[in-house]
């Protein structure tokens, strides 16, 4: 019995200690965490970085980190307008075949190699010649030759006009030519560029650190070190912002906005994005081949309710075929929710009692919410929607497996498109040009309009800005009227920052700009 | 004994060979096209086909398998389709943190689990038993992500004692290993209890007691040791699973482990990474099983292995 008491005592002690730890936590409510004055800035993002090779990157977060270390000839300002970075001036010939750049003369790569026309040539030729690089298939295979005019002037000649070429020069960030020649296998791991920060280390899955480049060509107040961390769980990312472990988090989850609103240590950034949300409608399938049906679907859905219900109130109605931060955007008259008008249109089209249809989407919980919303809205006009959600890989096979429009089984697809920055070609051609039917692109509406095709082709082949603007105006108004999509919304991007952080901005693509990052 | 271990290790080779075939087939036959995912959704068919050819995915599948096996024999795990980095480079930073996390979680879960299980069995149907089993049931029932977030809320946000995640220093291992170990601790406690209760009914225990042996000798030396066989089996299985990484815990604590890498790779159809990870897990599992078998013989001298 005596032994038994000892055992009991041990057990009791164990339980007590657990309880004490548990209870004591309630007493203190103080926010501690790391000192805000420490010289390192931590930026937490939602996904792992994929690659540091700027010529072979497609994801936003890798791009963000790269932009701290690497620069292109051109860049984007906060509204998506193209600006000079390593170029001081550029011109495009009228036939849109020749691009001439004047270069900055006071720039050095992090390894000491000078930046000049030769360096640009080495970079562009790397992309032109290596078919394994993503950028290669994005315009750079259209380049015929690169000519050095003098030490700081270079001319790029295309085989055929390619309208996105300027934005390609933004993404073609410059790597040290020494690295390209001697050590190209390391580019994806630790790139050497000209940017305001230099690479320090990348621990896979954990963090990537950069430090200030004291020889950067533009003087400014910058933090000594920045550490980027992938933190996929929303709750954990928010906790890091609260404790001060992270100075900046992106994206800030919509559902956490209320708990942070009253936190005086945190500010919230809200930026309209280039992400369009829509349902593509297969315009070659019955009953969707009837314009009145497609318009009826558009009139049946309330954009405001969509933004409120599905996007937690953060978004703008999609009032054109492209988001407002895209170049040459022109606002259209919104399809305001009008159930009577929608029913009327369905009746005219011969479907007074509605019809049955199928909507596809991935298994993401936000997508499910969106599809249920569409289902409920379309029920109002008698359209009975069946939801079919599929794992991403399967979905992709179903969509791109169709070799001709006739094979296509897709009726409606709930999806989004994030175009490359403000690039209008990328926001239209893969989605609305008849050359872009799957598997050749993402025109899953199988939308075909000879005028729209022609306008896009002409716009691609001209260097004249005014003509382009005019053509894209026609493109947008025609597509909006033809309603190959149910136009829903444009996301607003949210990011959270500690109040002592200055000079960190989120751009419309979700990129994090840190050129002037510092603490107050 | 050494011969036995040697034999078991040689037996691994055909098993691993079968694993490579199965894993290769599974990864390549599930729907989803990595070339399409790499090329991007606005890519034309021609671009997708170029990417596919570069990845060698346009070859017949048996040919791809032989190419893969060829480089595997030279110790090359391949190159990730998604990142373009060698698979081994992606593993290096993740492997050791995963091992440490497994050891920490398993370590405390074993100690506490055995303790609670033993106390519960000794005090069957008295309050320590009830308390122990309530703890065990809660440990199993609490979902990992919830427990993890609560721990972060208390210890990182409110108290500021521990970091919310990462893998730097022992501090960042505390919360993830508590979260990961909670379920296992509970399971071990319950197994220990029931197994010990069975043993305590056995004749040799009664004989021992009749002989006048003290409870403090009977319980740990005679009863517990004989009850451990089933506990070791369960612990071994759990250990094997833990080595495979835990997606939930790694996600909640932004921990650079193998589990999240696997999930990311599956959604991207990153064949070389999936294959290498599954192969590694198989090796780990087989090794853990071997250790479990050896532990059996140490616990119960009646179990002896002859080669």
From TrEMBL, chain A:
InterPro entries: Peptide/Ni-bd (IPR030678), SBP_5 (IPR039424), SBP_5_dom (IPR000914). Residues 1-21 form the signal peptide. Residues 82-435 form the Solute-binding protein family domain. The keyword Translocase does not apply. Transmembrane segments: none annotated. It comes from the Bacteria. Pfam families: SBP_bac_5. CDD domains: PBP2_Ylib_like. Keywords: Periplasm, Signal, Transport. It is found in: Periplasm. PROSITE patterns: PROKAR_LIPOPROTEIN. Part of the ABC transporter complex GsiABCD involved in glutathione import. Binds glutathione. Belongs to the bacterial solute-binding protein 5 family. This is Glutathione-binding protein GsiB.
Automatic annotation (TrEMBL), chain B:
Belongs to the binding-protein-dependent transport system permease family. OppBC subfamily. InterPro entries: BPD_transp_1_N, MetI-like, MetI-like_sf, Opp2B. It is a multi-pass membrane protein. This is Glutathione transport system permease protein GsiC. Pfam families: BPD_transp_1, BPD_transp_1_N. It is found in: Cell membrane. Residues 95-292 form the ABC transmembrane type-1 domain.
């Amino acid at each position: 019995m005596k032994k038994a008491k000892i055992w009991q005592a041990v057990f009791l002690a164990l339980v007590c200690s657990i309880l004490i730890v548990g209870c004591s936590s309630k007493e203190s409510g103080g926010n501690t965490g790391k000192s805000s004055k420490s010289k390192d800035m931590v930026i937490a993002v939602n996904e792992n970085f994929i690659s540091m090779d700027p010529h072979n990157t497609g994801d936003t977060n890798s791009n963000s980190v790269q932009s701290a270390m690497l620069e292109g000839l051109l860049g984007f300002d906060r509204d998506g307008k193209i600006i000079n970075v390593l170029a001081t001036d550029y011109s495009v010939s009228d036939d849109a075949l020749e691009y001439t750049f004047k270069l900055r003369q006071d720039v050095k790569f992090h390894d000491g190699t000078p930046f000049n026309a030769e360096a640009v040539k080495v970079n562009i030729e790397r992309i032109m010649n290596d078919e394994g690089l993503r950028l290669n298939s994005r315009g750079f295979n259209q380049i015929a030759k690169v000519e050095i005019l003098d030490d700081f002037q270079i001319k790029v000649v295309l085989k055929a006009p390619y309208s996105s070429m300027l934005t390609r020069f933004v993404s073609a960030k410059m790597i040290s030519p020494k690295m390209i020649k001697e050590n190209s296998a390391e580019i994806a791991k630790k790139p050497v560029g000209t940017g305001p920060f230099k690479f320090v280390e990348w621990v896979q899955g954990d963090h990537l650190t950069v430090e200030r480049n004291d020889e950067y060509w533009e003087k400014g107040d910058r933090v000594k070190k920045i550490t980027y961390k992938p933190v996929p769980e929303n709750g954990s990312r928010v906790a890091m912002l609260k404790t001060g472990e992270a100075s900046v988090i992106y994206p800030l989850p919509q559902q956490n906005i209320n708990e942070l609103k009253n936190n005086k240590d945190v500010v919230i950034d809200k930026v309209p994005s280039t992400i369009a949300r829509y349902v593509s409608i297969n315009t070659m399938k019955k009953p969707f081949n009837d314009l009145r049906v497609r318009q009826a679907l558009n009139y049946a859905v309330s954009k405001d309710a969509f933004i409120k219900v599905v996007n937690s109130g953060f978004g703008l109605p999609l009032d054109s075929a492209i988001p407002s931060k895209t170049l040459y955007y022109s606002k259209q008259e919104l399809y305001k929710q009008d159930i009577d008008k929608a029913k009327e249109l369905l009746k005219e089209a011969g479907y007074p009692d509605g019809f049955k249809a199928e909507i596809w989407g991935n298994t993401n919980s936000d997508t499910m919410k969106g599809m249920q919303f569409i289902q409920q809205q379309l029920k109002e006009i008698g359209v009975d929607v069946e939801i079919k959600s599929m794992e991403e890989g399967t979905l992709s096979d179903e969509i791109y497996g169709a070799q001709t429009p006739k094979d296509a089984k897709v009726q409606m697809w709930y999806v989004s498109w994030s175009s490359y920055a403000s690039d209008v070609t990328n926001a239209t051609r893969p989605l609305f040009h008849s050359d872009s039917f799957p598997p050749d692109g993402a025109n899953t509406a199988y939308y075909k309009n000879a005028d729209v095709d022609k306008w896009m082709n002409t716009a691609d082949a001209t260097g004249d800005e005014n003509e382009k603007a005019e053509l894209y105006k026609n493109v947008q108004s025609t597509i909006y009227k033809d309603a190959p999509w149910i136009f829903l919304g444009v996301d607003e991007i949210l990011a959270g920052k500690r109040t002592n952080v200055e000079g960190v901005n989120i751009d419309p693509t979700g990129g994090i700009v840190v050129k002037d990052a510092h603490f107050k | 004994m050494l011969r036995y271990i040697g034999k078991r290790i040689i037996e691994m080779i055909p098993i691993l060979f079968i694993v490579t075939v199965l894993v290769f087939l599974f990864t390549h036959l599930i729907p989803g096209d990595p070339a399409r995912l790499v090329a991007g959704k606005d890519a034309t068919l021609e671009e997708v086909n170029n990417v596919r050819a570069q990845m060698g995915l346009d070859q017949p599948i048996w040919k791809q398998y032989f190419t893969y096996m060829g480089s595997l024999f030279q110790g090359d795990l391949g190159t990730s389709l998604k990142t373009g980095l060698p698979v081994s480079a992606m593993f290096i930073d993740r492997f050791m943190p995963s091992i440490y996390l497994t050891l920490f979680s398993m370590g405390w879960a074993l100690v506490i689990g055995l303790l609670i299980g033993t106390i519960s069995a000794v005090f069957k149907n008295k309050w320590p038993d009830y308390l122990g089993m309530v703890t065990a049931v809660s440990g199993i029932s609490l979902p990992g992500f919830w427990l993890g977030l609560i721990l972060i809320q208390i210890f990182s946000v409110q108290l500021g004692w521990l970091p919310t995640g990462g893998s730097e220093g022992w501090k960042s291992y505390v919360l993830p290993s508590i979260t990961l170990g909670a379920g296992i601790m509970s399971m071990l406690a319950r197994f220990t209890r029931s197994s010990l209760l069975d043993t305590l009914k056995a004749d040799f225990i009664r004989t021992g007691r009749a002989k006048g042996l003290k409870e403090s000798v009977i319980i740990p030396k005679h009863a517990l040791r004989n009850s451990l066989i089933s506990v070791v089996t369960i612990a071994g299985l759990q250990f094997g699973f833990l080595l495979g990484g835990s997606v939930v815990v790694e996600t909640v604590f932004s921990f650079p482990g193998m589990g999240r890498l696997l999930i990311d790779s599956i959604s991207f159809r990153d064949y070389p990474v999936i294959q290498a990870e599954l192969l590694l897990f198989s090796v780990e599992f087989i090794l853990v099983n071997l250790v479990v078998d050896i532990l059996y013989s140490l616990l119960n001298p009646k179990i002896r292995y002859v080669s």
